[in-house]
Amino acid sequence: MSSHIARVVRHSIVRSAVLYSALIAMAWCALFPILWGLSGSLKSQAEISAPNLLPTRPQWSNYADVFALMPFGRMFVNTVLYAGCVTAGQVFFCSLAGYAFARLEFRGRETSFVLYLATLMVPLTVTVIPQFILMRTFGWTDTPWAMIVPGLFGTAFGTYLMRQFFRTLPTDLEKAAIIDGCSPWQIYWKILLPHTKPAVMVLAVLTWVSVWNDFLWPLVMIQRDSIATLNLGLVRLGGQYVADWPVLMAASMLILLPLVVIYVVAQRAFVSGIVLTGFGGR
Amino acid sequence: MFVAPNLAAVAVFMLFPLGFSLYMSFQKWDLFTPPEFVGLANFKQLFTADPLFPIALRNTVIFTIGTLVPTLLISLIVAAALNRKLKGISIFRTAIFLPLAVSAVVMAVVWQFLFNTNNGLLNIMLGWIGLGPVPWLIDPNWAMVSLCLVSAWKSVPFATVVLLAAMQGVPETLYQAAKIDGAGAVRRLFFITLPLIRGAVSFVVVISIINAFQAFDQVYVLTGGHGGPETGTYVLGIMLFQHAFAFLEFGYASALAWVMFAILVVLTAVQLRLARRNALEY
Amino acid sequence: MSVSGPVPGMANAHIGSAMLDVPLRRRTLLRGAGTLGASIALWTAGCGRDDNALTFFFQANPAEAAARLRVIAEFERRYPDVRVRTVLSGPDPMQQMSTFCAGGKCPDVLMAWELTYAGLADRGVLLDLDTLLARDRVNAEQLKADSIGSLYETFTFKRGQYALPEQWSGNFLFYNTKLFAEANVKPPPARWEQPWSYAGFLDTAQALTERDSSGKVTRWGFVDTWVPAYSAGVFGMNNGTPWCVPRTDPHHLNFDDDAFLEGIQLYADLAAKHRVAPAAVDQQSMSTMDLFSSGKAAMAMGGHWRYQTFSRAEGLDFDVTVLPTGPRGDVGRSNIGTTGLAISAASPRKDQAWEFVKFVTGPVGQAIIAETDLFVPVLRSAIDSPGFANAHNRIRNLAVLTGGPANSGYLPVTPAWEKIDALMDRSFGPVLRGTRPATSLASDLSPEVDRVLRSP
């Protein structure tokens, strides 16, 4: 009998070992490019082709070089500003509209919502050119407005998300408020909004990451470095300092860092957000 | 009104561009001279007279399949591995999902470093096992492989997140029943897990196809805005960008965008119909 | 507009799962206040900018940029009420110029490349400088007298003058004098008037190519630091047939001409057949620039923009020589590579822009340029100046540089160059790798190029 137990125990230890090694291998595959980039960012130009993961003498000066070679601080502020404004706007206006679509009765509600759903299917490539022309007509090319305004008042997706969410909330809260004579605004602001935290978190994280990582739009809209975003700055840096890998890696790590922080802190929101849009696959 | 700002934004920035883009696809316009109505000529030229369209289409299909298939296979395995109650599994999850936070641009820059024939880690590792250096980004065929590799690396975490969530919805009782019946782990995977997460799998497939079809950011940064060595990575996203912003043929590019849209709609409809037909009732 | 296009359906499932009863109000207020404050800061920063500066768009690696800034500083010193704001180009300057101008915010002064400016000129994006030259008679005549005709005419398109040239960037050969001496090889010609036959060039390259015991090349005879497809065409041009006739707005490129194709084949053979030049595959291990700088290549084809890099390389003794002449050619030529400065037609600051362009392309600016070892100036007075000679005291064959502009053949000037370039890139690949002969271009590339050139 005991040999059978011993065998089972051994079997399960072996299985655990196999599993853990598989998991470690997978984690390595997921992380090694980033780790290699990190290691490259701390190497000197001479050491850059050496296969060792740990640099012999960490060159933190590469990070200082990034700030010297491109207006990183300015671009960081720009990107934060764009992401922040658009996120705040999205959250606010989409939750408003989502509430309206879910709870308020008004003329044309259903038709407008169908239109919203229609726009969800439209790929980015179709709208880029007309939006470019719109910005040109407004004279917003090469200004911060082009980066902020199109997303500021919310998009169809955000509203869709919020509407679905509001529909899941129980109606008793509102019923009590209506009996008390609250206006729709008060219902929205005081009663329902506090309960929407998860959806708001998801939408906020999604929007923030989406604006932070956006590349095509800044590429065609922005000329001046003083209003450029981090991604754009990185590509321009790469174009100028071709194959100066330590500096490029340092810049990449710096751009990556804030998002990694957000990811670690708000992992759940991040993950559900990715699931909902599928934009993590891009 | 609650809805007004949001509705206005969607109308201006999504619906209007949609219609305007269609209108533009019937014009020849470079934004400097007045537009010229040409009817269906753009479409005709696209399908019959443009030597680059079939190339772009073929490359896009290869890229889509080349990203989708590895992504799906790997993420199934990874999700299955993560779907356990092992100690420390959440650390592994955090590690494996980390690439979600990386922007396409940063990812492409870091991988460019990895792919470099002299400095790159990949060729160094190949050297360890005695294989010669691979011209990852120089040879047209290898460039496409490199691109698929990078995109798959980015897509696997996304797909894993979705599939894992779906797998976690499969009741434990089914597995236990199967275990009692003597089914091994592999058979359990094939006959229980896979059929029950069909919905999630088809969701991943649809999203991956939509994203891969329009891929631009990583292609542009990894292999340039001209579609790589000898147009080896000349995909539809690059073709659109090139025709609009390099050749200044906005009408033609709009026609291309609508063709892409149409293809995507058809693909998505086919996919959804297939999925619905095979949906398991349980 | 960046958060778009998902497939709905999973929305309901995941949101309701994690309901937390934490009051949201405080966070929202804080975030709102923060955003408001930030927005105000942004607004004042963004709108309080002096948009009265003259914008100057150009592409430059860091060293070139420094030289540019010297010229700009001198200009600002003489014209204190004009501020110049530089816009440095990213990887693809032509695409960026097109996009910026299409977006309605064209930079005032634009760097113009001989190959790509015609597209913008044709669309009316660039200002016809003849209007300004007409007002400024004296200056215009002086300019014409001092300029080199072929470079000046490069920017003449459909009877308008769309840019003034500022540098000659034609190609020639750099060669490593130490390696030549060690291998006891006869030094190549010192001036364009002494042609160098392709056979002689090939012999030299072969004599200087070294291989190790396993047959792997340890030192190349020849590397190309320019664009291979264009270099191949220059070899074709040096085999007796020009790229096209006429030069400007042609309807046909000579990709079906035997002599031109033979020249291309001779270039391709250097890597594919004779193995004196690295294939693209070999080049990724080390860039061609580094190969020459480190002495792993004996000759390098390139233009003057490489000069500074090579002159700063440690232990590199080099000189310059002419490009080889093909068997059917009569004399070796460089290409009329030139960049110039143009003014955008929609600029609200045309007069200031004109002063700037005149300055840089005029005697003063060109003299400053001559003193830095970065550009070869286009005004005769500057080329012949002692300042230019001093900046190049490391080489002996200065005549290759000073005589370059006068001994150059042309590349096509056409608005459709972007498209032709894309087609060339596609077709030249297999030819340069040796998997297809150059004659295949006659059937593959030529008809497509002609079709692009003929359509409006």
- Name of the CATH superfamily of chain B: MetI-like
Rounded to an integer, what's the Rg of chain B over CA atoms? 23 Å
Number of strands of chain C: 14
The pLDDT mean of chain C sits at: 82
User: What is the averaged pLDDT score of chain B?
Assistant: 84
* Strand neighbour order, sheet with most strands of chain C: 2-1-3-13-6
Name the poorly predicted regions of chain C: 1-26
Total number of distinct structural domains of chain B:
1
CATH class of chain B: Mainly Alpha
Question: Biggest interface between protein chains, with counts per chain?
Answer: A-B, 90 and 96 residues
Q: What is CATH's topology name of chain B?
A: MetI-like fold
Task: Provide a count of the helices of chain C.
Answer: 22
Order of helices and strands of chain B: HEEHHHHHHHHHHHH
In order across it, which strands form the biggest sheet of chain B? Answer: 1-2
Distance between the termini of chain B: 44 Å
Task: Characterize this entry briefly.
The complex is a heterotrimer of chains A (282), B (282) and C (456). With 282 residues, chain A is mainly alpha-helical.
Describe the structure.
- The complex is a heterotrimer of chains A (282), B (282) and C (456).
- Chain A is mainly α.
- Chain A is built from 14 helices and no strands.
- Chain A folds into two domains: 2-59; 63-277, MetI-like fold (Orthogonal Bundle).
- In chain A, helix 2 packs across helix 13 (245-265).
- The longest helix of chain A has 40 residues, at 2-41.
- By secondary structure, chain B is mainly alpha-helical.
- Chain B has a single domain (40-277), classed as MetI-like fold (Orthogonal Bundle).
- Chain B has 13 helices and two strands.
- Chain B has a two-stranded antiparallel ribbon.
- In chain B, a hairpin with a 7-residue loop joins strand 1 and strand 2.
- The two termini of chain B are 44 Å apart.
- By secondary structure, chain C is an alpha/beta fold.
- Chain C contains 22 helices and 14 strands.
- Chain C has helices at residues 11-15, 25-47, 62-78, 93-102, 117-122, 130-135, 137-146, 149-154, 177-182, 198-208, 228-237, 258-272, 280-283, 288-293, 307-312, 350-361, 363-371, 380-383, 386-391, 398-402, 417-433, 440-454, and strands at residues 54-58, 84-88, 109-113, 156-157, 160-161, 164-168, 171-176, 210-211, 217-224, 297-303, 318-321, 334-335, 338-343, 408-409.
- Chain C has a five-stranded mixed sheet. In chain C, strands 8-9-10-7-11 form a five-stranded mixed sheet. Chain C has a two-stranded antiparallel sheet with strand order 4-5.
- In chain C, helix 16 (350-361) packs across helix 17 and helix 21 packs antiparallel against helix 22 (440-454).
- The longest helix of chain C is centred in the first third of the chain and has 23 residues, at 25-47.
- The two termini of chain C are 35 Å apart.
- Chains in contact: A-B, A-C, B-C.
- The interface between A and B is large, with 90 and 96 residues.
